[in-house]
Design brief:
This protein has 124 residues and is an all-beta fold. It is built from no helices and eleven strands. The strands form two sheets. Strands 2, 4, 5, 6, 9, 10 and 11 form a seven-stranded mixed beta sheet that branches. Strand 5 and strand 6 form a beta hairpin. The N and C termini lie far apart (40 Å). The model has no long low-confidence stretch (mean pLDDT 96).
Amino acid sequence: QVQLVESGGGLVQAGGSLRLSCAASGRTFTSYAMGWFRQAPGKEREFVAAISGTGDAIYYADSVKGRFTISRDNAKNTVYLQMNSLKPEDTAVYYCAGRPSAYGARLKEVYDYWGQGTQVTVSS
């Protein structure tokens, strides 16, 4: 069983930056690929970024490519999402997710573990 706890959300002006963190419990963090998803009001939960267990394979949604960076520190059992050049359309609840696989995925259905989410609000 893996427990995930996100932090770092908040209110920021357009063009600003935020760094989200997701702390994972357990001793086999490197066995889990991690992903970030987001859900805006009235919309489906959508893929943002994913990273493999070793950090050598990374995927981004087209909407965030070049602005967001996913990374992980396996010594700290933590995955990060650095968000730069934020836009109002990035406003959503951001969720961290984990799956017991070497590689991440864009489909939310293949992730077994989810955090509680952290709100990100970007004002114009």
